Amino acid sequence: MSRQKRRAVDPARLAAFEVLKAVRVDDGYTNLLLPAVLARHGLTGRDAAFTTELASGTIRRQGTYDAVLAACIDRPLRKVEAKVLDALRLGAHQLLAMRVPTHAAIDTTVTLVRNQVNQGAAGFSNAVLRKVAARDLEAWLADVAPDDLAVAHSHPAWVVDELRRALGDRAGELPALLAADNDPPRVTLVARPGLAAREELPGTPTRYSPYGVVLDGGDPAGVAAVAEGRAGVQDEGSQLVALALASSPVEGRDERWIDLCAGPGGKASLLAALAAEHGARLTGVELHHHRARLVARAAAAGGGLAGVVRADATRAPFADASADRILLDAPCTGLGALRRRPEARWRRRPADVIALVGLQRALLAEAVRVLRPGGALLYATCSPVLAETADVVTATLAEHPDVRLEDVAGHLPAVPDAEGPLPGTVQLWPHRHGTDAMFLALLRKA
């Protein structure tokens, strides 16, 4: 391929195309792939923002765009070459959801296909995108998804069903929740107590966390406190998880805190700083080597980190009844963080819920074993799915009659309208609170 052809492709669109390919082929995560891709293409400022929105937005709205493209193509989408389909989705997002002139969206996409595939595929893409451009998104939705929330809001149907069940008697909020899942999340920073003050971070103070700010713009790595490890990037919902555990009273000794699933270290970093203020030390547990290193690096700035143990948390290397406070932020489907991880909605399957619930119950049983009487155990998931939240907690309470469920909402008094599926639990929502859909349950061993 000649250098002249390569130069003809817009770098921002080529970068977005590369992200889509890596997500599809390598099971990559959009937010983790973007920094390296942007750096490789030398994209900064507005070009970097354009690429980020193009890649992330396309993946978020993939279900909607596939329905539109299917109406414009005379064969099943599965028979369209994957690279061509990636480019068509990028083109559809520019035409239907971005302020890109029609001729620019079509011309740059066709050039991209010509460069990355061949001339024949470029002609095909040109014809398809001209059909897409004939209507706006509202008109297309009225045609391809008049009464289908899954297509209109680009969620798999089974995910829509699970979210409807999780909303319970407020299922009328479902369209607002699905729409919030498609809103790009703003960058939120956390000032780690004892290391940084919120006032030194640029941005608007968060509504509920006393340590957070919503960044007004720019690269968070350019903030001095972040670069020095005294602050970090963390969703407000995750900040509230750490705050809820740290503010829950314990009876007697309060020295040994454990984060049973600590990687990659965001909650552990805040929890370690809070532990230091209590005169306690936090031990992180992480199975995977690279994630354990991330935890150690993220939480090192404080003085509250006792260390990171590489271990399987279902067989934690701690004695019975030896921990004063335990955080179990359990592995889950991640369906509460679809704003942040747009590819998760397409990657997860109903069978994943069954497998994860088994793991969650095993982890929670182990946490109960390690928790001492009078101590506090916070079970959290970044998923509102009832099988992963209320059902796991209910099963644990049935299996452990010495464990009781306590009111965690009382330790987050500033957060309104967050009643969880069990009395005393908390369920945060993107459309109500502007956070990931974190679930919190506080358990105590009598």
From TrEMBL:
Superkingdom of origin: Bacteria
GO molecular function annotations of the record: RNA binding; RNA methyltransferase activity
Biological process, per Gene Ontology: regulation of DNA-templated transcription; RNA methylation
Gene3D superfamilies noted in UniProt: NusB-like, Vaccinia Virus protein VP39
Ranges in coiled-coil conformation: none
EC identifiers of the protein: 2.1.1.176
Residues reported to bind S-adenosyl-L-methionine: C261, A262, G263, P264, G265, G266, K267, E286, D312, D329
UniProt organism field: Nocardioides kongjuensis
UniProt-annotated catalytic positions: C382
Keyword tags: Methyltransferase, RNA-binding, S-adenosyl-L-methionine, Transferase
PROSITE patterns: SAM_MT_RSMB_NOP
InterPro entries: MeTrfase_RsmB-F_NOP2_cat, MeTrfase_RsmB-F_NOP2_dom, NusB-like_sf, NusB_RsmB_TIM44, RCMT, SAM-dependent_MTases_sf
Function: May act as RNA methyltransferase.
Occurrences of domain SAM-dependent MTase RsmB/NOP-type (ranges): 163-446
Name this polypeptide is given: 16S rRNA (Cytosine967-C5)-methyltransferase
